[in-house]
Amino acid sequence: MTGGLEGYDAVAEANAQKSVLAIHWSRICERLKAEVGEVEYRTWLRQITVGPVEEDEITLYLPTRFLRDWVRGQYGDRLGALWHAEVPAIRRVELQVARPTAQPAPGADAQEAVPAPAAAAPNEPAAPAVAPAATESPRQAEVRSDLAAPLEPRFTFDTFIVGKPNEFAYACARRVAERPSSPGFNPLFLYGGVGLGKTHLMHAIGAELLRGGKVSVAYMSAEKFMYRFIGAIRSQSTLEFKDQLRSVDVLMIDDLQFLIGKDNTQDEFFHTFNALVDAGRQIVVSADKSPSDLSGLEDRLRTRLGCGMVADIHATTFELRISILEAKAAASGVVVPAKVLEFLAHKITSNVRELEGALNRLIAHANLFGRPVTLEATQDVLHDILKAHDRRVTIEEIQRKVAEHWNTRLTDMFSARRGRAVARPRQVAMYLAKQLTSRSYPEIGRKFGNRDHTTVMYGVTKVEQLMAQDPAFAEDVELLRRMLET
Ligand SMILES: Nc1ncnc2c1ncn2[C@@H]1O[C@H](COP(=O)(O)OP(=O)(O)OP(=O)(O)O)[C@@H](O)[C@H]1O
């Protein structure tokens, strides 16, 4: 944790450029996916990695000449236009062949990726040793953007509202941010239901640590961890991946429950975990359940996870919801009457993400039309969200009804089977889940056998397209919707 070495500025600048480009790139990828569809995207575009920008030209890398030529021929112009729209200073895209070392495109991670083959077991890398880049460069305050996701600037301790349900988790997070690797607090295990602030607290720890000193922080979801790991096996760079991970001061892994059933990745995580803790580095993990309730994780991992500090975040109380709404309304600069805040806090009790989403919509509406926020306007603008909350259709109910209707097995809603006979009803159930509940794409994905949110987005779009093309199919879906609504 030393710093101030020669070359620091250049490294810091390069890192800053990398993380800014990564943000632009992830937006471009979302657009590309929407334009060309998931399958095309995964076949041709997901392997692109972003290189440097020089003057008005950005370099993008592809792993083989064939892919490079294909992408250049089919998508070269579109890539150029999308980059220019994102970053007007970029006018040209240069496609080159290179082994990927930069951050791959979001979703580079096959959603239903085959776990690592036995021949490439995590602890027996077949690859030749690759020099660990991270340990060679001067250590500095950095988010390891080469390795992990950028931190969300909104998620700080200052913007986290503390109340009874989360005060213990908040205090533990603060303590870790102030004194990482303290005995009794390593690992810090945060758990609780969806949308209650686990990710927010993890990012806040990261932001605070970066503010305070020369420390390298890597935050990533467990899902990303797995895909990075699989990617490293495929590209025969597991040793490099391990070295990168083990060179950070603080490793934060979000939504650990994703690793349930992914034995090879669990194994790798376990070894990384031990190596880091033994070297006095801090680990922070979040999950939807406590370590002891995470059945499906290996016992030795659950035991180690529970060895430090375990802190839960409980469901919100009315008081906490009001405090959060007040703070967010005040930060927006739009006047939201107390009775509207109370109405929202009464109606939307599921989690903070939904509460925040509803308030944001009201604020956006007020800004757009320049009208004051009133209770009547709230009921009107949020009628779909409020209806979903009144009706309380669950995703499980939707899955059951859809499976019955198409005469498929309920388990196929969660299975990895992809044949059209099972995939289509699954997509319809995803579509109805999006329409009839206020769940987010990632939450829906989790309910469908831990699928990626992009799979859900693709499924929803597919059903919309089919409904537009095929009136009989549209009628079927509408019928199901009506049955579920009543
Ligand atoms: N106490 C809080 N104060 C302010 N904002 C909060 C609080 N709790 C949650 N939020 C906000 O709610 C949203 C969802 O929180 P977050 O993503 O941290 O949830 P999570 O527990 O990680 O959910 P998931 O299990 O889905 O990953 C974020 O925008 C976050 O800023």
Structural write-up:
Helix 5 runs parallel beside helix 6. Mean pLDDT is 82; it is low at 1-9 and 100-137. The protein has 4 domains: 8-108, DnaA, N-terminal domain (GMP Synthetase, Chain A, domain 3), CATH 3.30.300.180; 133-313, Rossmann fold (3-Layer(aba) Sandwich); 318-391, Helicase, Ruva Protein, domain 3; 395-485, Chromosomal Replication Initiator Protein Dnaa, Chain: A (Orthogonal Bundle), CATH 1.10.1750.10. Strand 1 (49-54) and strand 2 form a beta hairpin. Helix content is 54%, strand content 10%. The protein has 486 residues and is α/β, with parallel strands linked by helices. It has a 6-stranded parallel sheet, sandwiched between helices. Strands 1-2-3 form a 3-stranded mixed sheet. It binds adenosine-5'-triphosphate. Residues 155, 159-161, 166, 192, 194-200, 255, 288, 324, 352-353, 356 line the site of adenosine-5'-triphosphate. Residues 155, 159-161, 166, 192, 194-200, 255, 288, 324, 352-353, 356 line the site of adenosine-5'-triphosphate (ATP).
List the keywords.
486 residues; alpha/beta; GMP Synthetase, Chain A, domain 3; Rossmann fold; Helicase, Ruva Protein, domain 3; six-stranded parallel β-sheet; three-stranded mixed β-sheet; 20 helices; 54% helix; disordered N terminus; binds adenosine-5'-triphosphate; ATP binding; nucleotide-binding
